[in-house]
Specification:
- The protein is an all-alpha fold.
- It has one domain.
- Helices cover 75% and strands 0% of the residues.
- It contains 8 helices and no strands.
- 33% of the residues are buried.
Amino acid sequence: MRSDGAENDRPTPSTSATTLWERTGGLTGLIQSSLPPVVLVITNSWWGLYPAVAAAVGTGLLVTLLRAVRRQSLRPAFGGFVGVAISGFLAARSGEARDFFLADIWWYFGGSILLIGSILLRRPLVGVLWSAMQGVGMWWRHDRPSLRRYDIATAVVAIVFAARFIVLHRLYENNEVGWLTVSKIAMNYPLWAVALVVIVWAVRHADHRLGYCP
């Protein structure tokens, strides 16, 4: 099941794969990430684009400060704030509210290409990132069933990215700002829930093959 060269890469017992959910912010993080675009659309309909951009960026900053005060992980909040700031800059520069979603749209496109490429290179990104988070070597590359499971998990995430790109890009082309927000939120929860289930399945089964399933 494992080649001799993989022995030094053998991991120590990992924490539960469900900590992936916690490290990405959990349900609270998903809700908080939905606030800036909602604020943008509502404010834009009342007071125009530039106040809307300021309100959306301010909301992202407020979320970050709130997590800091509550001593929660700032990693998802800070990443979200940077994304909101970039989105706000693009919208303010072009003068079009739909450009608030432009960075997300092309991030999903680029992410899907990167994920597919990692599978073709036999280094599926889900496995690579999980190994990095746990601080262990990529031992699973020496075990074909484990590698296959990480291929599947990475492919599912790539499909999520591609689906979001296709839907949001179509709405962007039609200048449907309200539906861009609705779709961003509506596709967020169910698609990532499915992806997380597959990721947890891959991680648990791969760890189990080396006897580290809790």
